[in-house]
Predict the 3D structure of the following.
Amino acid sequence: MSTQARFPSTDEDEVPRELAELGKRIAESSDPTRAELEMAYQRVLDSVRRRRRILTLVQEALSQLRLDIKYLMFDLEVTRQERDELKQQLEDT
């Protein structure tokens, strides 16, 4: 059984293999529309990188939210226990 990280680490400059191949083919092309294709490719590449950064930020925010919820649940449980103990003490006196 293979184990993988929950959130695989990715470099900012890492792009999907297919996109990298497309970039190489555009660079090797001698087509007169090469400059237009390179500009379009660069926009797509920027978009992919931006989306990856956004996804990473969202994943980090969700992880932090989960942790915060665990702390709040713990705090709520302790507060309930303290309340019950105080009620018991008041009833005993």
Summary: Residues 5-10 have pLDDT under 50 and may be disordered.
